[in-house]
Design brief:
With 503 residues, the protein is an alpha+beta fold. The protein has 23 helices and ten strands.
């Protein structure tokens, strides 16, 4: 039997006022959805309860959890907006309306896919909590997808796979994206799902004994070197993540080294680098497989040290080294910071102040805001780009591929000669790099050096490349540049420059 106490306990400690608000929303939602049933035959209210519970497990704020309980009240219970505002306030109404708008988006294949994505991004740029409520709502719907009529199952699963999971991943909320991945995968690609499941089962059976032995070796090796305060566990790739990697590796599972990864969780960054040194001193690392995501985080904020080593038991294994804080953020991403802004009990780190602008209640990125302490350079470029999508012209050009390349594909890290890092979609060219730095640098490209060698401006950049853009006042963008560019930002500036030249 559902009760508000279970949700409140997940958020504990809570003020009496916040606990009362959640309890009132619980009772109100149960009342307005009384008599409504889901496809499974269970009461409709169960869905609202489970959505709120997922949000509470993500440690979202009482405001967000309350909005989760009420998120279907306008659409499915015909409650007036004025009633929600009267009982629960303007901010909760704002969130409920945002989720209601997103609920009208349906995946219709390539033709309308771009519009769905655009609307989602607009929602994200207006208030990040809207998308997190929608992701929690979608997760519970996916868990009960078997009860939905069969002709709808594939569309809903595909929509989840193509739209919601990539957004959850880009927001760094792996807790949600992992849960969504495997259930969607099973409905969209059932044969491949079973095939991947079989491969994973065989691989885990083969590696489980070796993994257990190696964990004991790691504990001994670290203890000998004076490191005793750490947590050790491991993670296994999701089936969908493994499937995508199998496609890239021609279904050769022996070419995949990170099906299982050992995680060493420590108290501070210095210890992370110390432990990496200890591990490399005892076990031989695989060349080219050492990644420092602490110095250069992934675009979604993920931080850790990764190394792949020969264990001495006839296999290679990925080891991930991170702090407790990094581990928390890897699981909950942006969601792990939102509570702090609303509760005002904890200061947000200077590099995360941009989150305040994603909890706006005003225009996003309004620089006239009183919050002058925000450094807008700290806002991740991909978040800024989301806002730019609102101003794109609505012609019929295929935005789908642009969006997928810009946000959903793997990213590469490219460096300036001074060591500043820029993240770009895979297959980006020096043109994309130049425009990512500044539009004027892009408009004046006359030559490019990659790793100190002159290259063509349409060369594909690789992870770790050092790129130097040579400019000239006489250089101008051409139509060819537009064809070579991969990112929407570059294409937008080139198009604008070409129009100016015509004038």
């Amino acid at each position: 039997m559902e009760n508000a106490k279970e949700i409140i306990d997940l958020l504990s400690p809570l003020s009496k006022k916040d606990a009362r608000m959640i309890a009132d929303a619980f009772d109100f939602s149960k009342k307005i959805h009384d008599g409504q049933k889901r496809f499974s035959g269970e009461p409709y209210f169960n869905h609202l309860y489970e959505t709120a519970k997922i949000l509470a497990e993500l440690r979202m704020s009482p405001i967000t959890v309350t909005a989760g309980l009420l998120h279907d009240s306008l659409e499915d219970a015909n409650v007036k907006e004025e009633k929600i505002e009267e009982l629960f306030g303007e901010e909760i109404l704002f969130l409920v309306k945002g989720v209601t708008k997103l609920g009208k988006i349906k995946y219709r294949g390539v033709e309308r896919h771009n519009e769905s994505l655009r609307k989602l991004f607009v929602a994200v740029s207006q208030d990040i909590r809207v998308i997190i409520i929608k992701l929690a709502d979608r997760l519970h719907n996916m868990k009960t997808l078997q009860h939905v009529p069969q002709h709808k199952q594939e569309r809903i699963a595909k929509e989840t796979l193509e739209i919601y999971i990539p957004v959850a991943y880009r927001l760094g909320i792996r807790k949600l994206s992992r849960s969504l991945e495997d259930v969607s995968f099973s409905f969209v690609y059932p044969k491949e799902y079973e095939q991947t499941k079989k491969i994973l089962k065989e691989k885990r059976k083969e590696d489980s004994g070796k993994l257990e032995k190696f964990q004991k070796s790691i504990r001994k090796g670290l203890a000998k070197n004076g490191v005793t305060n750490f947590n050790l566990d491991y993670r296994v790739k999701t089936l969908y993540s493994l499937y995508r990697k199998l496609l890239r590796k021609d279904w050769d599972v022996e070419k995949i080294y990170d099906i299982s990864a050992l995680r060493i969780i420590l108290s501070d960054v210095d210890e992370c680098y110390k432990v990496l040194g200890i591990i490399h001193g005892i076990w031989r690392p695989l060349p080219g497989r050492i990644k420092d995501y602490i110095a250069f985080p992934k675009p979604n904020g993920y931080q850790a040290l990764h190394t792949t080593i020969f264990t001495g038991y006839g296999n290679v294994l990925e080891v991930q080294i991170k702090t407790k804080k990094m581990h928390q953020e890897a699981e909950y991403g942006v969601a792990s910071h939102i509570y702090y802004k609303e509760s005002k009990k904890t200061k947000i780190g200077s590099n995360l102040l941009w989150i305040k602008r994603l909890l706006p209640f005003k225009k996003p990125f309004d620089k006239s805001s009183k919050e002058k302490e925000i450094n807008y350079d700290d806002i991740p470029s991909w978040i800024k780009e989301l806002v730019e999508y609102q101003t794109l012209d609505k012609n019929k050009r295929a935005l789908e591929e642009d969006l997928k390349e810009d946000f959903f594909q793997q990213r590469i890290f490219v460096f300036t000669p001074k060591g500043d890092v820029t993240d770009l979609p895979i297959d980006s060219t020096p043109i994309d790099f130049a425009y990512a730095i500044h539009s004027e640098i892009g408009n004046r490209i006359s030559g490019v050096k990659v790793n100190r060698k002159m290259v063509a401006i349409n060369s594909q950049l690789k992870n770790g490349d050092i790129v130097e853009i040579i400019t000239s006042k006489s250089s101008r963008p051409s139509q060819k540049w537009f064809e070579y560019a991969k990112t929407t930002t570059a294409k937008k500036h080139i198009k604008s420059a070409l129009q100016e030249q015509k004038k």
